[in-house]
Amino acid sequence: MANYQQHYMNTSATVAGEGYALVCREYGNPPDIEPQPIGHEPTLGAHDVHIDVLCAAFNFTDHLMVQGRYQEKPALPFVPGLDAAGIVRAAGSSVQRFKPGDRVISSGVAGAWSCRLIAPEHRLVRVPDGLDPADAVASINSHLTAYHALIDRASLARGERVLVLGANGAVGNASIQIARYMGAEVFTVVRHTDGKFLLAADADPSAQSVVAGEDLKAGLRELLGKRGADVIVDPVGDHFTEAAVRNLAWRGRLLVVGFAAGDIPQIRTNLLLLKGAGILGVYCGALLIQETDAFTGQMEAMLALMSEGVLTPAPREIVPATRFAEAWKRFSTAPRGSKLVLGFA
Fold first, then answer.
1. Measured between alpha carbons, how far is 316 from 57 in angstroms, rounded to an integer?
2. Structure confidence by residue, pLDDT tens digits, 123-157
3. What are the boundaries of each domain within the chain?
4. What are phi and psi of 237, to 5 degrees?
5. Closest by alpha carbon to 106, among 152, 161, 144, 75?
6. Which of 57, 240, 297, 305 has a C-alpha 20 to 30 A away from that of 10?
7. How far is CA 83 from CA 57, 74, 108, 134, 207, in A?
């Protein structure tokens, strides 16, 4: 696949002119990242799509990668970014699904922090009419993770009970929306104050309680009763996971999304045996590589729900890409559950 990674700098163009990319020259906190003009356009492959990027997501993965803290460390210098939304500029000779002028979104295509991006056709999805491209790209990580977790991995059925840990985070909030859409009964755990947590049930607003971390297991038992939760969405990990697993229903499913609270939990397998329960990993990045068609199909379905108003886009803030230093500071101070988007238009 053609790309722009080797076609920035060493050109007479200006950053404000024909096009530019954000180039990471040194890892760090903050990293050495500057806008650099793009050089000549690479040859477009038969199955490639050339995109004029409108905006690109600033994901947690990107934040780690430009610090050199991610499991993959691209050779320096490189153009960061994995998710972008834009307008098709040109399409390769064998491209069938897209034409110039189409609004598209790419995910998992390296080099997204650039005015122009070349992506393979099979990695692209059309942005539905009525949906802002910035809303679409800001919601990939959270809403697609929730969709993949509950609909694909857990096969959530109407009437089942879903417990969402970290419900005030981006993935947690998206999981609540997906669960409600699927007709599930939703229960939530959010951080309250001073190491305490607010437990709540959608069906019974009066069934709220505030418990200390060490009392979470008992608090969940009171909230969920003997039946427990059929599905647990867990983006937090640490000691919260075991407290939740102990309140799984028979044939329950624990969805492992992440470990935002710190430590990776060690779950006693006898707890799963006694409940006939299972643990399911939720990793959209691996789905993209292992089952690309499934990945793009689920993203297309998720964006369709968003365009229909079933799902609410993630709150987002757009910072011009030329002001990356400001974007770096905002990433650390943005409200929990919100998304930072870099503007290239």
1. 10
2. 999 999 999 999 999 999 899 999 999 999 999 99
3. 20-139+314-343, 142-285
4. 70, -145
5. 144
6. 57
7. 6, 16, 6, 11, 39
- Under 8 Å between Cβ of 213 and 197: yes
Q: Measured between alpha carbons, how far is 199 from 228 in angstroms, rounded to an integer?
A: 14
Is residue 13's pLDDT more than 50? no
**In this prediction, what percent of the chain has a pLDDT beyond 70?**
95
How far are the Cα atoms of 23, 60, 164 from residue 147, in angstroms, in the given order? 32, 19, 13
- Of the candidates 204, 207, 227, 231, the residue with the CA atom closest to the CA atom of residue 219: 207
Across the range 205-230, mean pLDDT stands at 91
Question: What are the structure tokens assigned to 37, written together?
Answer: 């003009």
Tell me, which fold does domain 142-285 have in CATH? Rossmann fold (3.40.50)
Q: How many CA atoms lie within 13 A of 315 on its CB side?
A: 9
CATH-assigned architecture of domain 20-139+314-343: Alpha-Beta Complex (3.90)
pLDDT in tens, 185-211: 999 999 888 889 999 999 888 888 999
Q: Output the pLDDT for position 3.
A: 58
pLDDT for residue 9 is more than 60:
no
Retrieve residue 34's tokens.
């500057």
Q: Which amino acid is at 288?
A: L
Rounded-to-integer distance, Cα 75 and Cα 24, Å: 10
Q: Within 13 Å and on the Cβ side, how many CA atoms surround 225?
A: 4
